[in-house]
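call fold(seq) -> tokens
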Amino acid sequence: MSQQRLLVIGVGSELGSLATALLEQDARFTEILGIDVHPPRRRLRRTTFVRVEHDESTSFVRHVVAHRPDVIVHLGVWEPHARLGTNDARVATGNYARALCDSLAQLDGLSRLILRSGLEVYGAPHRGPADESTPTAPTSTYGHMLTELEVMVQDAAPRTTTITTLRFAPVIGAHVPSPLGRLLRLPIIPIDPFSKAAFQVVADDDAARAVAHAAAHGVHGIVNVAAHEPTTVGTVARQGRRIVAPVVPHTWRVTASLTTLAGAPLPDHVVELLRHGRTAISHVRDSGYLPVHSTRDVIKRLYSWPSIVRIAPLRPIERVA
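ret:
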């Protein structure tokens, strides 16, 4: 069994922490380095964590080159309104991407690179489910971010490196900051009354297993990762016993303002999903990438999470003049 040095970029995210915990169980990866702006969200036993802000490119490159990784897992992607607003998410994702590309130019012997992307690169509206041969045609900010990331890394990576691009459906999990997940948990869900478009999601643990499988056995190319059994927004609302609010065209901006006040910002790629759906299939015949949970199962788990309960203080808080 050959020993390999592993680098996980974005180890502090829930997906990054889950995937790294799985990768730590693989004895082939002897030295594991994790880079992120935040520490891992779970205890990792064999991973050395280094905190690097997204605008510290010199420090980023120095740590990567010093580690001399054989395998790189790049999960350093900020979805708009997951943890950062749209502009900040675009800047942070671009900064990490450029720093990664600068590092790749100085690496010898890199055998495998796993890149996180998303179904948003296919754009909307789209007839039928997209497969890996479907051309990218992004029509949202997040879709453009991911497409640019894919192109940058493809151009910068050594030709001898196996690149696996994982295009995920929206990742949903109890601790995953998902704008779609927040929206679907609102008591009232906006809906396009003229659309019956379907969409898919993927559970966080299924996404983590796909990342770990790609790091250990990755194919060269693109893999769509989405739960089976697509659903519709109306079906989800009934499943979660939510009220639907029909939204007519040209008023989605007002709707986004209202959902933001309710604690669920509505970026344009989520509006696309609500109006046009987003489905995909995969022609990669590898069971290691197949999600275990269906879309319905993931949504069921979404509505099983306990709600936030605000507890009033036992005694009035004294105000300081």
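The first helix runs from residue 14 to 23.
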